[in-house]
Amino acid sequence: MHKINLLLILTLILCFLDSNTDAYKILVLFPFIAKSHWLLFEYLIEELLEHGHEVTAITSFKPDRGLTLNGHENYTEVLIEPPFDRKKMVSLTSFYERKDHSHIESLLNIYNIGLATAKYGLESKNVQKMIKGHDASFDIIVTEQFMQESWLMFAYKYKVPVVALNTFGYSDAYDRIYGYYTPWSIVPHHLLPYTDEMNFIERYHNALLCLTDWILRSFYHYPEQQKLIDRYFIPHIKQNSTEILPDIYELERKVALIMINSHVALDHPRPSMPNIINVGGIHLRPTKPLPRDLREFIEGARHGVIYFSFGSSIQGADMPKHLQLAFINVFKNLPQRILWKWEGEIPTNIPDNVLIWKWFPQHDILAHPNIVLFITHGGLFSLQESLFNGIPMFIIPFFNDQFKNAERSTREGYALTQKVHELNEKILMETIVELINNKKYIERAKEVQEIFKDNLMDPMDKAIYWIEYVAKHKKA
């Protein structure tokens, strides 16, 4: 009897040891300030914790209350405090008033905010402690690949491989990391709405913008990122190293794997490298039950519900008064009910068919069968969530890739788009009525939905597999 008990105890111990053999210590780097990007990382971190890994995250965001990160024994956060104030660099109100946009200006904005947030994070007290400290150790780094290349110096400090996750989609800069040069004749720049079948003028425009992007990255962005390394890392690393320290280019070349928030249902065909992996839809988790009052509002709508949100960056309170009034007048004359995400002081005279909240569980709402239309800014995450649920879109873009997303979605037949400065009651009403009453838009959205959901491997499972693979083998 004692022998049986002893064997049972030994078996349990061996099972426990085996289950923890492949548990890794993971450092997540997220100095950027986009809440929507961080939500993707939250879901990824939660999944890593469920696989038994220990995760330390450098971020400006505290965990969402609905996630298991809160109080998890294997999760440690290193907060960048206070959070970077984006409004010091970008006037969000001006996006409503802008009549045109420059792709070069968009590139400069992306590089500048990347540099600013990288510098701000490195200066923070908690991050400085990590840079100067020598006690911590990790097996792998997972970082957002969004214009903060100086942070790759953490990989040299801890002597670990890096897996990067790009939330923005493809860029030919990632091809160049691995020695491949993207053919500009068939691959459009990530800010342009062109297809892989460009005419001569489009190819010329594309080549010009790609060349400009390469010049800005090579002669402005990378040198500035190198200055951040020299200022914030080198003085502390040199004290403990006689090696020749890597520069920004070598650090980037040593990134083992890049995961791209891209999917064949939403992107044009393009050549790529084997260590660039598509994980588009990684943030699309199983839906959760809606709060009772929200569910009753949606299910009580006889003619369906329109969901209206401009994402986490464009605030409702920044909307000009005349545009607020135009939306209100249109909404009160629609038979549908409207869910309107709004931050700040709520406008007066809100119709009875409109429910305004500061935050909505967007993916859970779009999954409800009573949703008939999504009014959106056209951000990539919103686009993916809408198509994953087969919902047509009215896209009103504001900056960066949103214009490309809007034009492509219109061309593909599951959306219509309008410029924000051209909006009035007539245009709003005509566009909304067309999208709801003409069934070709929802039929096309359902077609794309089928392709989007038909994956050989779940995007989250794919991401976890490759992170664990790189941690185990120290390379891809």
Can you tell me about this structure?
Residues 1-23 form the signal peptide. The protein has 476 residues and is α/β, with parallel strands linked by helices. 44% of the residues lie in helices and 13% in strands. It has helices at residues 2-19, 35-50, 92-97, 103-123, 125-132, 153-158, 172-177, 200-232, 234-237, 248-253, 292-299, 321-331, 362-366, 380-388, 402-412, 425-437, 440-453, 459-473; strands at 25-30, 54-59, 75-79, 140-144, 162-166, 257-260, 276-278, 305-309, 337-341, 354-357, 371-376, 393-395, 415-417. Strands 3-2-1-4-5-6-7 form a seven-stranded parallel β-sheet, with helices on one face.
Poorly predicted runs:
16-20
User: How many strands?
Assistant: 13
CATH topology-level fold name of the largest domain = Rossmann fold
How would a textbook summarize the main sheet?
A: 7 strands, parallel
Q: Globular, elongated, flat, extended or rod-shaped: what is the shape?
A: globular
Strand content: 5-15%
Oligomer: single chain
Number of domains: 2
Q: Please list the strands of the largest sheet in the order they lie side by side.
A: 3-2-1-4-5-6-7
| Span between termini | 49 Å
The CATH class assignment of the largest domain is Alpha Beta
Layout of strands and helices, then pairs:
Elements: H1 2-19, E1 25-30, H2 35-50, E2 54-59, E3 75-79, H3 92-97, H4 103-123, H5 125-132, E4 140-144, H6 153-158, E5 162-166, H7 172-177, H8 200-232, H9 234-237, H10 248-253, E6 257-260, E7 276-278, H11 292-299, E8 305-309, H12 321-331, E9 337-341, E10 354-357, H13 362-366, E11 371-376, H14 380-388, E12 393-395, H15 402-412, E13 415-417, H16 425-437, H17 440-453, H18 459-473
Parallel strand pairs: 1-2, 1-4, 2-3, 4-5, 5-6, 6-7, 8-9, 8-11, 9-10, 11-12, 12-13
EC number: 2.4.1.17
Pfam family, one: UDPGT
Membrane topology: Single-pass membrane protein
